Amino acid sequence: MLSEQERKEIEAHSRHYPNNRSACIEALKIVQRYRGWVSDEGIKDVADVLQMTPAELEGIATFYNMIFRKPVGRHVILLCDSVSCWIMGYERMRGHLHARLGIGLGETSADGCFTLLPNVCLGACDHAPVMMIGDTLHQDLDPARLDEIIDWHAKHFFLQEEKKEKKEAADGNTSDP
């Protein structure tokens, strides 16, 4: 079930389009922003709001590689595997990420912090190899730079988790038995 906030945002975005169906990608991105991914239930709920069938919306959701249809880590790493990135060190970067995070392409780290996905092109061929985490493009990568970036994101992730746990403890909402 969509939250009231998700529903309001979807309805607000749909007003900018000639018909509700035209807002489907934005609507899916809204759900994903709140939940991290778009579940089957999310597809059905968005389809209801936009007056589409779930099958129509599923076809759109699975076409776009930036709509995640299964759970992903807090930080999704899109590693560019274009020709330019291959020539400039893609395999080395992929190997370093695999060794560092213990995951391959399409996998999520055990702590839920990172998901590693290939991406056809990120449009920065003159700064290859590149990757994107969230909305940030990281260029001219080498193993040392990868380590800096991963360390920063991991620290950010664990600080957020710690803050969340403290808030839950203060609110009395712990999941521990």
Describe the structure.
This protein is of the alpha+beta class and 177 residues long. The chain folds into two domains: 4-63, NADH-quinone oxidoreductase subunit E (Arc Repressor Mutant, subunit A), CATH 1.10.10; 75-171, Glutaredoxin (3-Layer(aba) Sandwich). It is 51% helix and 11% strand. It has seven helices and five strands; from the N terminus they run H-H-H-H-E-H-H-E-E-E-E-H. It has a five-stranded mixed beta sheet, with helices on one face. Strand 2 and strand 3 form a beta hairpin. Helix 1 (4-14) packs antiparallel against helix 2 (24-35), helix 2 crosses helix 3 (40-50) and helix 3 (40-50) packs across helix 4 (54-63).
Order of helices and strands: HHHHEHHEEEEH
* Rg over CA atoms: 19 Å
CATH superfamily of the largest domain: Glutaredoxin
Question: How far apart, in Å, are the first and last alpha carbons?
Answer: 28 Å
Tell me the number of structural domains.
Answer: 2
From the spread of the alpha carbons, the general shape counts as globular
Could you describe the largest sheet, including whether it forms a barrel? 5 strands, mixed
Please give the CATH class of the largest domain: Alpha Beta
SS-based class: alpha+beta
E-strand count: 5
CATH topology of the largest domain: Glutaredoxin
Low-confidence stretches: none
- β-strand percent reads 5-15%
Kindly report the spatial arrangement of strands forming the biggest sheet: 2-3-1-4-5
Into which percent range does the helicity of residues fall? 40-55%
Q: How would you state the average pLDDT, rounded?
A: 91
The CATH architecture assignment of the largest domain turns out to be 3-Layer(aba) Sandwich
Determine the number of helices (DSSP H or I, runs of at least 4 residues): 7
